[in-house]
Structure formats: C-alpha cells, structure tokens
Amino acid sequence: MPTPNSLPIDALYAEFHQALTRSHLVVESQTGSGKSTRLPLWAAETGRVLVVEPRRVACLALSDYLNSQSELIIGHAIRFESTVDEQTQVAFVTPGVALRWLSETELSDFDVVIIDEFHERRWDTDLLLALLKRQQKHKLILTSATIDGARLANYLGGERLVADGRQFDVAISYLAQDSRQLADVRGLESRVKAAVERAIDETPGDILVFLPGKKEIAQCQSQLKGLDLHLVPLHGGASNEAQRAALTQGSKRRVILATNVAETSLTIPGVTCVIDSGLERRTHQRNGRTVLGLHRISSASAAQRSGRAGRVQAGSCFRLWGQFAPMEALTPPEMQREELVEPMLAAACSGAVLSELGFVDGLPEKSLAIAKDKLLQMQAIDEQGRVTEHGKALYPLPIDTLFAHLITAMTNQPHREAMVDLASALSLGQRLWQPPSSAEGVEALKQWQPLCCDATTLIELLRRPLPEALIADAMLLKEARQLSDQIRAALALPQLSVATPYQRKPWLREVLSAQPDLAFVRRAKRRQALGNGFSEVQLGRDSRLEDRAEAAVVFDQFALPGKGVKQTLNLGTCLAPVTLAELIDAGIGQAQPGELQEDGATLVIPLHYAGREIGRVSERLENQNVIPLLVTAIKEERIFPGLYAELQQDIDAYQLWVNLGLCEENPQPISTPEAWLTTTLTDLGVLGFDDIELIEPQDLKFVGIPYWQRSEFDEKYPRNLVLPELKIRVQYLYRRKIVELEYVSGTRKSGPKRWELPRWNGWRVQYRKASKVVVVS
Helix %, strand %, coil % for the chain, to 5? Predict the structure, then answer.
C-alpha cells in the first residue's frame, strides 16, 4: 500500500525524465494513479509546461490543487478567466485556448505540451496534436487510462510508459434483470433512486451518479428530493463557482448528479460510490449533418467512470446494465462524428490544410468536402484551403464559425452589436429562458416583447431585465452577457450596458445578404415545416414564430435522429419572421420563365424559392438595350427554356471535336453561348423586344459538328452516363488526354468499371466522388 503522499505514477519518475530527453511520450496508467497531478510538475523541471485539459472543471480543479501543493507558479486559462502570465511555469488550459495561442504564437513560450485524457478524442485535441506533431518544436506527452498506447506511440514516433493501476479496489455490481440487458433511459430516474437508496445502506461517503444530460439530472434531482441528502448537479453548463462547489466536501452526505464532465482528470472529494447509467449524449453524423443523440457508453468510458470511486479509498460502482451487455471498446473520435468546419478553419489559421495533416485516424472525405464548401461560401478560406483575412477575423471570436461570419459581415455598428448579442445567447447550447405557460406570463411577454420573433426576444433578454412573470436561467444569462461583453471588447464595440439600438428589418436584410441559405419558407401543406431548398426544419415547440408568418430567418436549429436509419429531424429553435417581399428585396429567389405582357415590352417574372413561388417582378425592356437583356433572359430560361443549356452542350462538343483533330475544314472560332447569342441576334436584325416574336429557337442554335457526324461523336464521347445505380457527368481534359468522371447520384458504393464505359482508347480515365479521385482500370 503506497504511503499517503505517494502515488502509483511515482515509480515512473526516473524513467519519465530519461525518456523525455529522447522523444515524445505516451503515458498510460489506470485512474487514480496521479498522472494529472504529477506529470506537469515533473515536466516543469525541463521547461515551461502547457497542460491541455478537455474540460473547464478539470482546468480549475487541477490548477487550484497544484497551487496549494507546489511552490511553482501555476495558472489556468478558460473562457472568461485567465491567471496565466509570463511568470507562469505550468499553465492548465482548455483545447480551444491552446489552439488560439498556437495560431497566434506557435506556443513558442512553452517547452512541453501535455494533452491529458487524450482518449476522449475531441476534435480540438486531435487537431492540436496533429499541428504540434507537424511543427516539431515541443516535447509532447499524451496521457490517459484507456488509450491505445502502442498505436499512439507509433504515430508520434515516441515512447510508451505504463504505470501500475489505481490505488484502491472498486467493487463492481450490475443492477439489471438480465446479464445482457443494455443501458436504457426508460424509467432511469426510478432506477437511479433505487440504486442511491442501496448505496446509502451499503457504502459510506458521497455518491457520484453519471447521467447523460441536464434533463436527466433534473429528473433525478426531483426524484431524490425526499431523501436526506445534499444534491449537487454537475454539468458543462454549470458556472465556475458551481463547479468549484461540487469539488468541495461538506458536512452532509452528498449525491453528485453529473454528466461525463466528472469522468476524467479530477477527484471529487468524499466519493466512494459511483452509480453509472451507462448513457451519454454525444454527436454523430447522420445524413450529412452533425446530430446530438443518446448513446450507450464504451467499455473504456465505463472503466473511467468506475475509477472515480477508488481515488481516495476502496469504493463501489453500481452499473445499471447487464454484465455481458455488448459495448463498444472505445468512443469513436469526434473528427469522425462531427462536421469539420471549425477544425478546418482552426487548421488554416495555424498555416495548415486540414486534409493534408496526419491524424491518428483518417478524416471522412464527405465531411471534408462539406466543410470546405461552407468556408468557401463564407470566404474564410481560398480554393487551396489557406485562410483569408476574413477567416482570420472570424477565428478569434469564441463562438460558432457561422455566427462569427455573420458578425463580421454586418456593415454598421448597430447591426454588428445585435448580431454579437444574438450569437452570445445562442452559443451556450442551452435555453436561457422558458416561454410562459400561464395566461399572466403570456400577457407579460406580449407587453415586454410584442413582436413574435425568437431572435429579437433573445437580444432583448440580454439587454433588458425580464418582467417578474417570466423566468430566465440567471446563471446562463450571466454567462451569455459575459460572452457578449468579451466579443464586444474584442471588436471595440460599446459594452452591453450601453448597447446601440438597431433596426430589425435592415439588420435581417444584411444577414440574408451574408448568408442566403438561412432563409426558409413555409411548406404549402405542412405548415409546421419550413425549407430552404437544401434542408427542412420543423418548428420548435418553444418558438414564438406565428402561423401567419410565411418565411423566417433560421438562426439556430437542433438536429435529432429521425425515424429512419438515415433520417434527421431538424428543429428550428431561433427564428426571425420575414415577409416574402423582404426575401425578394434581399435578392432571394430564382427567376423562372417570364410572361410577356400585351404592351410587348414588359416581362412578368415569377420568383421561386425552396419549391414555392414567393412573388413576381416586372421587367421593362427598352429597345436600346434589348439584345443584352434578351441574352440574359435566355440564359435564365425566361425566354426559350432549354436553349441556353443546349447551346452550351453544342459548343462544348464542337470544341472537343476541333481539339481532337476531327474537323477536316477550317474550324470556326470557338465561342461562348452569350457571345453566340449576341452575334446571332444582331445578325437577325433584332432591334426591339417585339422582334423576338418573329424568331424561333431553331434560328439561334449553334451549328458546329455536321449533323451526320454528331450522333456517332456523342456516342463515342458522351457528356453524361447512366449506369446501374449510378449517374455520372463526363468531362474531357483533352490537353492531358484524361476523361474525368464525376459522381452525380446513385446508390452504388463502388465506382464504375472500365468495361462499362465507352472505349476511349488512349485516354486515362479518372473517377471523382467528393474530393476523392481514383483511376478507373
């Protein structure tokens, strides 16, 4: 039995120092061995140390504890709070802080970087490790109780050190009717209460209950109220003060109801019993979107959780599932479960291209392509993946990339302030307030904020006090206001207390100009659904959007798994109503073929968006400008639908025919559809819009390849291919003799086979799907 001041990790002290002089390190040992408290102090003997902790609560706890145990200068840096300065010898920081410091200074002030609890495989720690490995300027140390040490040591080109297990035994009991029963959320609060009552009788000390989220914490808190216990909720949304309170032992026996923030890196004093629901909420990819779902934990997480009971003495763990229930070995990395917009921008701001970095596990091609498209749309990166000046402005803001983009896209101060306040309210991931259910509360809300707009309500919630009849989460509201003031200070804007009034309609017009896909319109028959042409949202239960509103700007949505394997249910949780006319005014809507009016010079053009007509506009065509206007009208298919696309195909085919040397006579100059139409309309003597009535589409066709050769040419060099379960677009790179096949649609998982394709003798054939290109053989 180790002495009170010794820990199992202490046996590695000499080996640790010898190995650190040679290479990077991966340190494995069971929970409670002392990794998080000993290794930073040991590493500090060789230089300045940055310790990256995945959670704020661990940063605070470890910094406070080591400050009381060591003579070193130890600090921490989390959102809203930093005690790190030039004199700090060991700095505990969250991954987001570490990444920002890396982009600003390359972490040149530090000699050693420790990434603690790496087994959680968060995107920010995976990215940080990949960037530091590429940089090769620091000694790197990875620690965890459950990681695959040999594989990581090989990835780093480093050494693996393994320490003895935890100090104290933990007796495991399974509270399930069947040995293969899986963890289940149904009736969870009742089963937790029964387990707590058993733990009170059979174990001493405090009890730590692992639950999947705030909702289950509240339900269990309500169920346990009748027991003579001090109930302590602990979750990521808790304030720093509340988190510190959970780490302070009191005189009364406690039950700490926690999410997996309590799973790693910290010792909650007095805990001798863990009750594990076996559940967690985590993100995953579903139908191309990141959704938050309820999942069963992995075996590695279960081991981490049970270890919380054996940190200071022998303990017990009650698992609310069967002993032989099937479980994943490890939790899948976030990089494989989530969208990659933020990682891609973070990598670009550190001078790297995400797809070119070497990670422990590969990144999904589809997720990379989606992230690149979104960042290109925001103009945050260029085509090569390098960060733009706009991207550099987005990255330091401690909020979602989309909100950062919207803030910087606003052209005046009042609009920018409004966007800062809304982004701050939406960035906490939890509801700041609860819509009233009583008649008194509903009336008070109408008086306080008469406009039924979720966005305006949230902005006013930060700027003005709520009436007594309305309820807000005081702690979350305080944090949202802190975040707003932090962003305002970074952007040299007035503080929240003196916020500048803004005009709602011009503000929303600017939002739509910066991000048009935030515009959603009601479905014609399903009034609870709104679409933008790419996705659909269902109206969230607590949204204030009125039924008469035909369109809205959807600032926030919450994705949940739908009924089918690939279905996703998107709930619109923050909507701002706009009229269809305001959408048109913002440039939303695609022109359809127009109708010529009786005056012969007015074209009425329907505008469609997301599958419905949102309005009509009139266009007056003056004779002196008629040809350019006619060319535009043909291109937009308002006149002679289908002609422009046919011209493009004919011109492309002719260009390929000429470049392949198949034209026996002098070829005509290669043109564009616009230039061809302009020349042809001029040659036809079109002077006024009414002259178009004398022209047939046949008069405007491009004659390139002789008609008696065209059919054979198209068969040999098709532009589109339809194969079993696969549709492909074909492009001919004739200078390089490459045929590039691009995936369009289809359920076939593999690419085309060479025998399915035209012969294309002498050509190299490539198949592109998303950003992946393979040679077809």
Answer: 40, 20, 40
